[in-house]
Design brief:
By secondary structure, the protein is α/β, with parallel strands linked by helices. It has two domains: 111 residues, no CATH class; 255 residues, Vaccinia Virus protein VP39 (Rossmann fold), CATH 3.40.50. The termini are far apart.
Length: 393
């Protein structure tokens, strides 16, 4: 047995040395786990030669990476314990088989190569970003990058956050109906990180003519952002001082509101609905209005055992608030998606509500949605959802 092992691993060492290794396959499993096969390939991880093992189970794959020495031990264990009856080494120079024969003797043989292409070894993933830092003066003025376009260490999380948002929005923006000019409003723009990046992505990457307005109630941030927009030549990017509730757009195709607190999210959704926006994207923050209603009325329902705990009441309030928001968007003819995303490494998971305009609902469907909203409110003891008030349903 030892001679066969030595011959097999000598062949493996040779294939790694001359870069001819294609893969290793272990089959004819006789163990007790729901394991079917193990596949091994050479990879480079941080410029270090490793062997990547894919453990193929009936319902899932598990991948683990080992040094050549660790891989030798792992292979020996799986074969010597009679778990796998055959191991095949594929190289571009030859094939080698380590196999238990009918008399349970471990044998080794080499033959003609059946494969002639060595797969790509790089295992390090190059992050494909929607937004690159180089050549972006606005990122420098927003203190994300230095003068050479290198992202500051302290701004790495913010830069990842910006890219994550643009990646999410990219597919949604591409699906918008074609227009001569796209009118976008970013409600609660803050310092304008996303607003600038969105304008850049729309006009320079997608080549969509667009006017983008950032709405922010802090006058100093509005002045800062307008100054930067002028410096970098973003002539159709403008920031306005004011609240989401007070903002009155003449025309709106896309409305975005990220982390607008409590009912400010509803004000933003209402602006999009009343403006007949093609796309509404909100990431709600705080859900105080519905939580107060739930706590005040304490409706008798099957969730009493959960809602007596404050943390569960908070989570339930979030789901109920956003669930009714989605129903109201559907009432006004929007196809809705609600999904979870993570904005950056230091921010908890968030919910993103997306509404894409699909046309007006027929009366029967609208009544069905109204009934769902009414029943949901009654179940949780809610008198009125603020979004009902501002949309007039």
């Amino acid at each position: 047995m030892q001679t066969a092992f030595n011959d097999f691993f000598a062949a493996l060492d040779q294939s790694m040395a001359d870069d001819s290794l294609v893969k290793i396959s272990l089959g004819n499993y006789r163990g007790t786990e729901p394991l079917k096969n193990i596949y091994v390939k050479a990879v480079l991880i941080k410029q270090k030669a490793m062997l990547s093992f894919t453990y193929r189970y009936k319902t899932r794959d598990i991948v683990k990476n080992y040094t050549p020495e660790e891989a030798r031990t792992e292979l020996s264990t799986h074969i010597a314990t009679d778990q796998f009856r055959i191991a095949t080494l594929f190289t571009t120079a030859f094939d080698a088989v380590l196999e238990f024969n009918k008399s349970n003797t471990l044998t080794f043989r080499k033959g003609k190569a059946s494969l002639n292409v060595v797969p790509e070894k790089s295992h390090d993933r190059t992050k494909q970003r929607k937004l690159e830092a180089n050549g972006k003066q606005y990122l420098h003025e927003l203190q994300i990058t230095d003068a050479e376009g290198k992202v500051y260490k302290s701004a790495q999380d913010k830069f990842r956050q910006i890219n994550h948002y643009i990646e999410i929005l990219s597919t949604l923006l591409k699906e918008l109906p074609a227009k001569d000019m796209l009118h976008v409003a970013d409600m609660g723009a803050g310092k304008g990180y996303l607003t600038f990046a969105l304008y850049d992505y729309l006009t320079n990457t997608l080549k969509k003519p667009a006017t983008v307005t950032g709405v922010e109630y802090r006058q100093d941030l509005v002045a800062l952002c307008n100054n930067i927009a002028g410096n970098v030549g973003f002539d159709k990017l403008h920031f306005e001082e004011g609240t989401i509730e007070a903002y009155q757009p003449e025309e709106i195709d896309v409305l975005i509101a990220l982390h607008a607190c409590d009912t400010a999210t509803d004000d933003a959704i209402a602006k999009g609905i009343h403006g007949d926006a093609d796309l509404i994207v909100v990431a709600p923050c705080c859900h105080k209005q519905i939580r107060r209603e739930i706590e005040q009325h304490k409706a008798d329902n099957d969730l009493d055992f959960l809602l007596k705990h404050g943390i569960f009441t908070e989570r339930q309030s979030e789901m109920v608030t956003d669930g009714i928001r989605a129903l109201i968007l559907e009432y006004f003819g929007y196809h809705t998606k609600v999904f979870e995303f993570i904005s950056d490494a230091h921010t908890p998971k968030n919910v993103l509500i997306v509404g894409a305009k699909k046309g007006h609902q027929d009366p029967a469907q609208k009544q069905l949605l109204l009934d769902k909203i009414k029943n949901a409110k009654a179940y949780f003891g809610i008198q009125q959802h603020y979004l009902e008030k501002v949309t007039g349903i």
